[in-house]
Amino acid sequence: MIKQYLILMRMHQWIKNLIIFAGLIFSEKLTEPALVLKSVIAFFLFSLIASCQYVINDYLDRNQDALHPEKKSRPIASKKIDPAIALFITAILLPVSLVLAYILEPMFFALCLFYFVFNLTYSKYLKHLVILDVMSISIGFVIRAISGSVVIHVSFSSWLLLCTFMLSLYWGFGKRRGEILLMESGAKSHRKILSEYSIEFLNHMMGIVATMTLLSYVMYATSPVTIQKLGTDKLIFTIPLVTYAIFRSLYISFIKNVGHNPTMAILKDKSIIIAGIIWFFMIVTIIYTNSYFHIPNLE
Fold first, then answer.
1. How confident is the model at residue 295 (pLDDT cuts 50, 70, 90)?
2. Distance, CA of 181 to chain centre
3. Residue 188 burial by CB count (10 A; 0-12/13-18/19+): exposed, middle or buried?
4. In the predicted model, is pLDDT for residue 72 greater than 60?
5. 3-state SS class at 237
6. How far is CA 78 from the centre of its chain?
7. How far is the C-alpha of 230 from the C-alpha of 44, rounded, in Å?
8. Measured between alpha carbons, how far is 152 from 225 in angstroms, rounded to an integer?
9. Which of 148, 149, 167, 188 to pair with 107, CA 20 to 30 A apart?
10. Distance CA 44, CA 285 (A)
């Protein structure tokens, strides 16, 4: 039962919450152990709260999931775990996590609580509204980013928030596209909102938001405010990696057709993982040792 509950928590989805560390990294606080510890604790608490939300979602969607070729294997849909037991464990884990979030930082607690309530609203209403269903998912990513900044009392770039919003929109539309392709004629019976989408429409949406994601990151990397705040203009050298990662994601969605589960697609794609690791080390090196990247002005 414990094993099935851990599967139900979808711990692989915790990768989404890594964005909580963005505020720590880009505010040049990565060398402060106390703030690093707070960010790590925030990451695990937010992840636990998000996992509780997944359990509730699976409980509410158990009948529809039973008709899905992949989701039917989920613990509740497959009846590998009793729904009542799953809810009982969640009823203990959720309030404990929220109390610890409040002790860590009251504003962080407020954002966690808002995230949880917002996702309940999404599960009940918003996921049935075309376009707003995907935008709601994106708002969840923005809340994650803001939470990471709030817990260590730093500001977060509006360009990075916009980039986060657009990137998650891309994943959301890609997920809808992948679901339609995976389910084919049965897509509408599994999730009625899919009847409001078409492959052609989603292709356009993905192209638009992919472009806006890249543009947002370029604007952040080259912004005079960013250059002044970080004391370096060398973030521009990370743009090719971000460009490659976005193009690779488009390739995965349009050629490999595995966009119905963006998280697993990323975790299984070595190219994106390598690009992400290189990007991370470049960001840390440029921000924290930017003197090593001094390039003479050729003008």
1. very low
2. 22
3. middle
4. yes
5. helix
6. 26
7. 28
8. 21
9. 167
10. 26
Residue 78's pLDDT is: 82
Distance of CA 76 to the CA centre of its chain: 24
- Give the separation between CA 89 and CA 7, rounded to whole angstroms: 13
- The pTM is what? 0.83
Q: What is the pLDDT of residues 154-182, one digit of tens each?
A: 988 888 899 999 999 998 998 888 888 87
Please report the pLDDT score of residue 258 as a whole number.
Answer: 65
DSSP H helical ranges for 61-184? 62-65, 83-104, 106-124, 132-150, 158-183
Q: How does DSSP classify residue 198?
A: -
User: Which residue's entry shows tokens 């937010």?
Assistant: 46
CA-based max dimension of the chain: 69
- Could you tell me the two tokens for 269? 């794609």
Residue 130 half-sphere exposure toward CB, CA atoms < 13 A: 10
Residues whose CB falls within 8 Å of the CB of residue 270, separated by 6 or more in sequence, listed in order: none
